[in-house]
Design a protein that fits this description.
The structure holds 2 protein chains of 2 kinds.
Chain A lengths: L1 H24 L33 H8 L7 H11 L10 H5 L2 H4 L9 E3 L4 E3 L1 H11 L11 H12 L15 H12 L9 H5 L6 E2 L2 E2 L10 E3 L4 E3 L1 H11 L10 H13 L9 E3 L1
Parallel strand pairs in A: 5-7
Antiparallel strand pairs in A: 1-2, 3-4, 5-6
Chain B lengths: L1 H17 L1 H5 L31 H9 L35 H9 L34 H11 L9
Helix pairs in contact in B: 3-5, 4-5
Classes of the chains: A mainly alpha, B mainly alpha.
Chain lengths: ~280, ~160
Amino acid sequence: MLRISIAAVALAAFAIGAVSGAAADDKPLQPWERKENHVKPPKGSPLDYLVSGYWFRTPKTRALQDDDFENPAFLWVEQAESEWTTVDGKAGKSCSSCHDAVEKSMKGVSARYPVYSAKNKKMMAITHQVNYCRENYMKAKKWKWESDKMLGMTSLIGLQSRGMPVNVSIDGPAKKFFEAGEKFYHQRRGQFDLACVHCHQGNFGMYIRADFLSQGHSNGFPTYRLKWQKLGSLHRRFRGCNNNIRAVPYKRGSPEYTNLELYLAWRGQGLKVEAPSVRQ
Amino acid sequence: MKFGRRVLTPLFAAALAVAPFAAQQALAQGKAPLVKYKVVDEDSIPKSLTGKPGDPEKGKKWAIAGRLGHCIACHVMPVDEPYMGEVGPSLVGVASRYSAGQLRMLIVDPKVVNEDTMMPAFYKADGFHRVRKAFVGKTMLSAEQVEDIVAYLLTLKEEEKQ
């Protein structure tokens, strides 16, 4: 009898343990933790898996991005669609004069940018390329990096790669730019003495005050940032980060930020292009 | 006038080295020249930077304030505040784990203890890369503020943990 009751107690204790254990295991995984949202990192990546910044945002923010009619970035995209066929500059050309329909000619282009340009002997972001065309082929004035027209145009071009995996080249002539970007990423800077790697590699999925840290990928840019109430460029985001850690930022379009853009694109190699995304 | 200032600055620095405690009072918050300190056992600054204990009430304020210590940006603290950071260890009961000297060291320059830490140095004015002009040659906290925060952290004993 005694033996039975001991066994019963032991069994009950085991059952309780099992129940509480199950309760702990049942804690739902957060969206960025779920396997189905992970992408295999490129060879040599320091990350175990890649996950888009999309999955670090609230369901409400994600819903804004999911619906093109709700996504505020599409106001800029619509402007850019008409800009695409509008003649500008002394050559009397528009984008479509050379590139025809944006849906066809620009398909997959953003996914492989930035690229090394042998002609210009430099790393070119898509924004550099748009201005290169404007100055050299259209004989038109350059657009400012953060102007509405430029953000709209780079979003329209980015949109043609939406859903396609980021696929930048880091070999050959791109290699030294890639390495410079990698160095930038690990360089401590500013009075806070922080490098990109400190927040975005080991600490994603955690809060720094009210900021929820993601892996810091670039696949959603240009992005409509709720904090900005505006569409903005990746280089604007870099400047914001640098300023926050009390470091002197570089100029938008600078070689330093363009190299970093290349390195970041590689860190997110395989993630789907989401431009123009919505972020917090 | 300009000449006078140039002469005064080294004199001031010399005075500071000789009598840091008196001179410290005259210093504007977070500006060089810094109070010299001695590291003991590679992880501790046993002596107060100001020569006296700080004010824990003020320290609590600096620990929360956004442009000063802002400890809660990265650490959970036993205070009633939303959005406390998670990237650093919790400061609940921290006084039961570290001595005053160790806490002072970690605030002044935590890289002396762990060179890979992401925690900024709050009483260091140089050796940084591309610091914004407004912050060049300045520390994040004054020596008094460091002491105030040390005094506050020393009140966070383990038994306060609920």
